[in-house]
Amino acid sequence: MLVKDYMTRHPIMISPETPSAEAQKMMLENDVRHLPVVGDGKRILGLITRDKLRVPPSDLGSLNIWEISRILSDLKVKDMMVKGKDLETVGPNETLEFAAQAMIKNKIGCLPVTEDGIVVGIITEVDLLAELSDLLGGSVSGVRVTIRTPDKVGEYAKITTAIAEKGWGIYASGGVRSPKNPDTWDVIIKVRNAPKDELVAVLQGIEGQEIIDVREVS
Are 110 and 34 within 8 A, CB to CB? Predict the structure, then answer.
């Protein structure tokens, strides 16, 4: 799964000379929270976000209404955007997990996608959450099971073999290390066309593994 397959292509972009009020209006009208700031040829210069468009009350506390109006009307995107060393971008051929790690590390909600400094897209935390939902079969009916397995080679194969022998299919799956226990993994599977009780009975028959959660999802 690569960034280029899940990013928003041709995102709305904005000039650094755009008044901040106009940038805010564009975000509201298009229901977006981030706008890449570009120069000639769509070359990345910065990023403006809804948070960046908020002026701290402490900066305005001693001013009257006319002074506040003047300051706000004079502000441009270039005065408020993320830029320089604080601007994080990602390439279209990077993996989704690479993009996710960059967002987590820098505590940010999106990454402009650039190629040779040119904006070709944008990927957001919402895009990543949507893909996580699809990865676990969030939009498909079936039986969802979480199985705790030892951290050993072949444990996942036991699950898939047991299900395949019954003629059922795994629609989606994923795995993470168990919370607070690095010696086990929690494997999540979603199985279609399998009676819940029969599926549980088959999985309970796998030695050394434990069913943590099971539910029918519609």
Answer: yes
Query: What is the spatial distance between Cα 112 and Cα 35, in angstroms, rounded to a whole number?
Result: 9
CATH superfamily for domain 136-217: ACT domain (3.30.70.260)
- For every residue of 197-209, DSSP letters joined together read HHHHHHHHTSTT-
Residues 6+ apart with CB under 8 A from 198: 166
Q: How far apart are CA 63 and CA 155, in angstroms?
A: 66
pLDDT score of 172 more than 60? yes
> In the chain, where does DSSP find H-type helix?
3-6, 20-30, 65-74, 77-80, 96-106, 125-135, 155-165, 196-204
Kindly tell me if the per-residue pLDDT of 66 is higher than 90.
no
Condensed to tens digits (0 to 9), the pLDDT of residues 174-184 reads 899 998 888 99
State the pTM of this model: 0.77
Round the average pLDDT of the chain to a whole number and report it: 88
Fold of 3-132: CBS-domain (3.10.580)
**What is the residue extent of each domain of the chain?**
3-132, 136-217
